[in-house]
Amino acid sequence: MDVEDIEIQLFVRAMQLRHGHDFSEYAPASLKRRVQQLVRTHDTGTIIELVNRILHEDDFLPRVIEGLSVPVSEMFRDPAVFRALRDKVLPVLASYPEINIWQAGCAHGQEVYSLAILLEEAGLYERSRIYATDFNDAALAMATEGIYATRDAREWSRNYIEAGGAHSFSDYYSARYDFIKLDQRLRRNVTFFNHNLVTDEVFCEAHLILCRNVLIYFSNALQDRTLGLFRDSLVRGGVLCLGTRENIDFSPAAAGFADIDGALRIYQVGGSGARPLRK
Amino acid sequence: MSTRSAIAMGCSAGGLLALERVLPGLDPRLPVPVVICCHTGSPDVSLLVELLQHHCPLPVAEARERAAIDPGTVYVAPTGYHLLVESDAHFSLNVDAKVAYSRPSIDVLFETAAAAWQGGLVAVLMTGANSDGAHGLKAVRDAGGYAVIQDPSSAEVDVMPLAGLEVAGADACLPLDAIAAELNRLCMS
Ligand SMILES: C[S@@+](CC[C@H](N)C(=O)[O-])C[C@H]1O[C@@H](n2cnc3c(N)ncnc32)[C@H](O)[C@@H]1O
Hints:
Chain A has nine helices and ten strands. By secondary structure, chain A is of the alpha/beta class. Chain A folds into two domains: 3-68, no CATH class; 79-146 and 188-269, Vaccinia Virus protein VP39 (Rossmann fold, 3-Layer(aba) Sandwich). In chain A, the strands form two sheets. In chain A, strands 6-2-1-7-8-10-9 form a seven-stranded mixed β-sheet. A three-stranded antiparallel β-sheet of chain A has the order 3-5-4. The chains are: A alpha/beta (279), B alpha/beta (189). S-adenosylmethionine is lined by residues 69, 71-74, 77, 105, 107, 111, 134-136, 139, 196-198, 212-214, 217, 243 of chain A.
């Protein structure tokens, strides 16, 4: 066995035994790159030295979590998805007196604010509650602030228009030099909190779960477990939206979901037509 | 029998035309998978797949996460995601930050492919306007793999092959029209 692969296993064990964080079911190739990146960021030379710091420095853990999380996101990423949420999913949600939305793996909050804007424009915001979760506390703090680089706003403005936005994207933020700050009224019905998909349980009856580009970091087994968690959280007829390049063909739990728009990875729990399982 | 187990190819500016000239020369009985990372800037990889299929004697498909990597198939990295090779010959994707200003990044593909296939890997770096792929090619050679670089003078844009030569060096530096024959020779003999 490759020495570096042994070191990665020791890293995973140390995170588990010392801090109760389980990365053993993360997709190995991405995990390895992130651990290598941590070695460079903290200039530890070797993974073993990184493990040493994880074991002996109590305040090092948050920085390791930050390094393993990589909360890269965009507002209205894949505009076609947000257009479909607007056209096909919000009308379903509109039939409920109260709407619970779980946004799992919310990174720096870009999708939370995107969703909030969508709900505002559909007149559904007042009866909605968004639970925005991530296992990276630093990312959650940034998500709460809603401050982003101005240079990103230009692309997001294009995304917003492509997603079928009814106004101008700039109506939703104030700009100051290099930064924009999203209108904080957009988060009056948003609750941000730490939730780890590997270890934590269902906490609400959701009508919509948005979890994009998170399960791609998970092994087949962990992906399946998490889809089971989502299925248990969703009401009958509830909607699940994953990232546009995610593949649930290998998950037995996916049999509980039917396509609303398969190409955009939008599914409905308990809909007619169970998914075929491919092996 | 050849000990080669896979081919990985990277290209950027001018890459589409380059691929349209290399792929037709591949032997239809090629017993290994071919994995391509080409920065196109187009949001829809299915167009690229369709286009390349017109020029390729082997089936061309988008690389899907979790799917097995089959021999005799040409795979293309989807736009906006890094494409990684897992050591059990499955694909995975991620949306980590850009590497060498690129996502998908050739470095990411080459480095993970080198870890998975080691000396069995043949990596090809072709035309492009940035230096993505150079470090990946070095990882390929360090793992015992075979590096082919398009002769910079035959490249539409020579920045990428020049960077590859400088950082990694090559086992073969060939004009575009000689690359397919070299790949056939390496993988069929
Ligand atoms: C690439 S971001 C996706 C952001 C956004 N959903 C998007 O698609 O643009 C992945 C996020 O998943 C979070 N994450 C990874 N593993 C997690 C876990 N076990 N529990 C909760 N969140 C997790 C990371 O912290 C990161 O913020």
